[in-house]
Amino acid sequence: MSDSDQEHSSQPVLPSGFADWLQHGREDMRKGERTRAELVTAGANFLAREPLERLTVAAICKSAGVAHGTFYLYFPDKNALANEVLGAFVDYVQGRMRAAAHLPGDAARNTTAAYLQLFEDNAGLMKCLVVGVDAFPEARGAFQRLNREWAETVVRATRRREGPDRPQDDLMRRAYALGGMVDQYLSALFITGDPWVRALSEDREAVLEMLTDLWKRGMAP
């Protein structure tokens, strides 16, 4: 094995949760559908360990085990693939958080715990959404959709709990602001590796309780 191969094999790969989700139902797919799924999974694996700007068609084809020309049967360019990968990742995150909201116990704590774990397990993909938004419209659009849909979910839950009297715009502003604070904290912890934030976050249960408390207090009347 060459030094470059050793370096590549030691790099982190996509956690099984999202990879399995992408490949769900693969045995029932037609050949073309399987090839497309392999390309998307290869793109997700790449973005789990490399920034968006390093994404290349050649790297994706090598990882998926397909000819270079095959890529263009499914995607017009690498940005289209990135758009599909990040859109799928947003769907995955939303699905996991909705599932967490229906678990027994405190819904706010359960969804916050799910997001904390998703952010940690998929830091590379979250970096594409949070950090890559300025240069790539694909990342920007996916991140904005994640924020919008989650803010709407939080507001609906608040209205079910408290009734419809509070203004919609006020609740949406609060949800957006709180989501931004959570993303900033988790980005410092899992993406940029701020040493002071890491030192303050060694007790993961304390971090979870703090973030849950922020959501509850911030959405309270």
Automatic annotation (TrEMBL):
Alphabetized Pfam families for the sequence: TetR_N
Q: Which residues form a coiled coil?
A: none
Recorded hits in InterPro entries, A to Z, give: Homeodomain-like_sf, HTH-type_TetR-like_transc_reg, HTH_TetR, Tet_transcr_reg_TetR-rel_C_sf
Keywords of the record, alphabetical order, are: DNA-binding, Transcription, Transcription regulation
Q: Which domain of life is it from?
A: Bacteria
Residue intervals of the HTH tetR-type domain: 33-93
Question: Residue ranges of the DNA-binding region?
Answer: 56-75
Which protein are we looking at?
Answer: TetR/AcrR family transcriptional regulator
Q: What is the originating organism of this protein?
A: Albidovulum marisflavi
> Lineage of the native species?
Bacteria, Pseudomonadati, Pseudomonadota, Alphaproteobacteria, Rhodobacterales
